[in-house]
Amino acid sequence: MTLTNSVINKVTDITLNSYALGTTDPRAFILEVDQVAFPNIGRGNGIACGSHVCSKFDRPVQYFILYPSTALGSSATLTFPSIATPPYSGDFTFYTRIFKSGTTNKKGYFTVTIIPEQIVTYSYSFHAN
Fold first, then answer.
1. Most distant pair of Cα atoms in the chain: their distance
2. How many CA atoms lie within 13 A of 32 on its CB side?
3. Which domains, and CATH codes, for the chain?
4. What is the pTM of this model?
5. pLDDT confidence band for 102 (50 / 70 / 90)
6. In this predicted model, what pLDDT tens digit does every residue of 41-100 receive, in sequence order?
7. What number of other Cβ atoms are within 10 A of residue 106's Cβ?
8. Can you give the C-alpha Rg of the chain in angstroms?
9. DSSP codes joined into one string, 16-84
């Protein structure tokens, strides 16, 4: 799993590298984003999720549905774009479900640790009134 931006309160992508799918050639993959901690992820239909196509749904559900653009083997790299991170650091759990032939083939979860970025550029200025 890769977090492309460790800065809190920013927009980032989440990538699951070589994620075990529990089946071959699934039809849909759902990624659930924490409804309480994360800002509203917005709505979208037919958006690019890496090399695949997604729809995303805002509150109250906060999830992506990924539709594979090509047949998948038993593992795949899956990307979910433009997720605004919470305005604080911590460990956050994402839930996954994989569907094939109308059946849930696998349920799972993974944890993302968001660490605030250190401020490296700073300045102060005083103005006389």
1. 71
2. 14
3. 2-114 (2.60.40.1510)
4. 0.81
5. confident
6. 999 999 999 999 999 999 999 999 999 999 999 999 999 999 988 888 889 999 999 999
7. 16
8. 17
9. EEEEE-SSSS-SEEEEEPPTTTSPP---EEEEEETTEEEEEE-TTT-EEEEE-SS---SEEEEEEEEEE
